[in-house]
Amino acid sequence: MLASYLNILRASFKKDFLFQFSYKLSFFTELVFAFLLVFFLFFLSKSFNFSEDSFYSRFKGEFFLFSITGFSIVNLMGQSYAAISNNLREAQSFGYIEELFVSKNRFIFLSISSVFYTFVKSFLRLLLIFIVSWALSDQILSIRDIITLLAVCCITLVAFIGISMIGLSIILIYKKGDYLSLVFVGGPLIISGAIYPNDVLPQIFIYLSELMPLTHTLDIVRNELVEESNINSSYFSALKLLFLAIFYLVLGYSSISRAIDTSRKKGTLSHY
């Protein structure tokens, strides 16, 4: 059974890599635009003059490294989420969705398998962005920093796989695009501290941000990689992120399982 799933993962990874790399201009254009964002934020931060007691004063490079971690990690998870939903829409629009249905678990795994290539590609790009950004701020990422970043992003990916399965259940039942990406990817840009510390927000938004996995991801990454001191511990944020990852994964699996059963009973699985 495990070998079968690994074969699916390997085949999906190879397919997505060959497809993406066949569009070489698009492949490298993404990298170019990523570095344009890095240099834009770097020079933008140079135009700011923050006081010593500003919200950004405890971060290395102040606004620059704070904002680049926010934009880059939100983009990583946004692309991972989109890869899963686009994979199901493609199967529906080209009419081969029922051919994927060997068993419920196999169908779910096939639906989310495309996320792994996207995650690897996007994480390597994020790592390159971080290395360049830290160099611009006269900082160096250690091997420990890179391992921490990878571990945190993997746990966050588990949460987003769960969220994406909720999104897939919406697509299967209602045959329309889901809007969870606006909540869990767009929301963090406003209330999770992606661009500015969420300390400045009203208390109600701070409570809502606790439901966003990216809130805790950004807290951990900044505490471990960006903050000047280690006074603030990341353990509590890590526990909350782990809890949300398990919660959304269980909720997502339950949602898509029910959606598959409902669609097959109604005979609407292949409708689009």
List low-confidence stretches.
none
For the biggest sheet, the summary is: none
Q: What is the number of E strands?
A: 0
Report mean pLDDT, rounded to a whole number: 80
Work out the helix count: 10
What is the domain tally?
A: 1
**What share of the residues lie within helices?**
over 70%
Task: Calculate Rg over CA atoms.
Answer: 20 Å
Class from helix and strand fractions: mainly alpha
Per DSSP, what share of the residues sits in E-state strands of 2 or more residues? under 5%
Distance between the termini: 31 Å
Written overview of the protein:
This protein has one domain (8-20, 60-266). The radius of gyration is 20 Å and the shape is globular. The chain is built from 10 helices and no strands. With 272 residues, the protein is mainly alpha-helical. The chain starts with a helix and ends in a 6-residue tail after the last helix.
SSE inventory with pairings:
Blueprint: H1 2-22, H2 24-46, H3 63-93, H4 104-112, H5 115-136, H6 143-174, H7 180-191, H8 203-209, H9 213-226, H10 235-266
Helix pairs in contact: 2-3, 2-5, 3-5, 3-6, 3-7, 3-9, 5-6, 6-9, 6-10, 9-10
